[in-house]
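Module 6 notes. Inverse folding takes a fixed backbone as the condition and produces residue identities as the prediction. Think of it as a translation problem where the source language is geometry and the target language is the twenty amino acids. Below is one complete input and output pair. Work through it position by position during the lab.
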């Protein structure tokens, strides 16, 4: 492909990503992958350059642009070497017209920024869009962090994460034979901190209520040395189906998966009511803490979508609390820096749940900052995804 054709392809992909953001369609990575499958003539260098254009524009533009061209023009303003490629050549974009509109730059719409937790200051906002490193977690069932140091000597230990090893962005770690053998998982440091904060122990009965593909479920199995009974639940069949083969690879043999029907969760979990020593509620949320990895999420969040997340979070907290044994613990977590999803959500739960108390001191020293009844982690302060977590203890 010519350099100009790569620009035009990026424009077309950005059009599709912006439309999906407005309509709640497929994520950017899926749209990009499908676009490349439709352009089999594009070589690996073409794909790499086009991806750089697409994500460079997404990181610059604060909200869904009126067109992919407007977004690419914004990128061309920031990278002047791209402007001459708008040359009207075959398969390339039309020349830039005088006063042609650009997409607005910035972290996010001001109304969205206004929802951030007060701990997220202006000095931290640039870090929310920097490229994230690749964080690995050693699987204790098969390995230790020292093994990762031997496999990837270019990396470094993640502070406060005893199994964590950090590599440069886009390192092809999953292509290593050790990944196939279940020696490690890819897991951001924030997720590792949250999984450890559950304080799971061998012999316990544990529920991961929103397990998804099972990243935190596998971390819990690792922390307990494959010596705890774990029930991994979700309402998304496609995501939950990813867990059994991952568990087999990891050697985690005591995980049961259960697909829940939305609205029927309490009935389908009745046998676990009041019996779980630990319950993990990694609730669906805005994903505002993961913009380093999925910057187009800024384009997707609307007041209506946020309200749906808030309602789901409150419901899942109530369901999870009903499963906890007397004196047991519930860990609530969201990959969000929005106060209503974090500290406010937990405050509301505690206000309507007599006898429940918020724990303290369950994160490594210097990791996170106190945010109401929980803790907030941010890319700028902690070098990981934005995350709110709160560990709560049920009344005896």
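Target side of the pair, the amino acids:
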């Amino acid at each position: 492909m010519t350099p100009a054709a790569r620009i035009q392809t990026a424009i077309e992909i950005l059009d599709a990503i912006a439309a999906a953001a407005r309509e709640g369609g497929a994520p950017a990575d899926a749209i990009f992958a499908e676009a490349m499958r439709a352009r089999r003539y594009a070589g690996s260098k073409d794909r790499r350059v086009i991806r750089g254009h697409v994500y460079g524009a997404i990181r610059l533009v604060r909200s869904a642009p009126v067109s992919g061209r407007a977004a690419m023009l914004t990128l061309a303003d920031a990278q002047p070497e791209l402007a001459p490629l708008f040359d009207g050549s075959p398969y390339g974009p039309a020349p830039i017209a005088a006063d042609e509109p650009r997409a607005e730059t910035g972290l996010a719409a001001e109304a969205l920024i206004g929802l951030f937790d007060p701990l997220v200051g202006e000095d931290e906002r640039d870090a929310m869009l920097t490229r994230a490193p690749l964080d690995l977690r050693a699987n204790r069932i098969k390995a230790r962090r020292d093994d990762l140091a031997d496999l990837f000597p270019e990396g470094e230990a993640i502070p406060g994460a005893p199994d964590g090893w950090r590599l440069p962005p886009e390192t092809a770690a999953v292509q290593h034979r050790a990944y196939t053998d279940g020696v490690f998982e890819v897991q951001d440091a924030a997720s590792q901190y949250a999984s450890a904060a559950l304080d799971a122990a061998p012999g316990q009965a544990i529920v991961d209520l929103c397990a998804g593909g099972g990243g935190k479920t596998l971390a819990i199995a690792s922390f307990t040395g494959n010596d705890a009974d774990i029930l991994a639940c979700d309402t998304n069949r496609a995501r939950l189906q990813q867990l059994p083969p991952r568990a087999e690879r990891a050697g985690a043999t005591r995980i049961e998966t259960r697909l829940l029907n939305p609205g029927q969760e309490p009935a389908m979990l009745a046998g676990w009511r009041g019996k779980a020593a630990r319950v993990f509620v990694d609730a669906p949320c805005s994903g505002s803490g993961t913009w380093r990895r999925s910057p187009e999420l800024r384009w997707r969040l609307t007041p209506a979508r946020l309200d749906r997340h808030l309602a789901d979070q409150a419901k899942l907290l109530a369901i999870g609390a009903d499963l906890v044994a007397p004196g047991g613990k519930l860990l609530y977590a969201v990959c969000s820096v929005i106060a209503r999803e974090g500290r406010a959500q937990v405050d509301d739960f505690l206000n309507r749940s007599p006898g429940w108390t918020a724990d303290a001191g369950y994160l490594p020293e210097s990791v996170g900052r106190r945010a109401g009844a929980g803790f907030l982690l941010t890319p700028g302060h902690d070098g990981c995804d934005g995350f709110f977590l709160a560990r709560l203890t049920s009344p005896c």
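Reference fact for the lab report: The radius of gyration is 22 Å.
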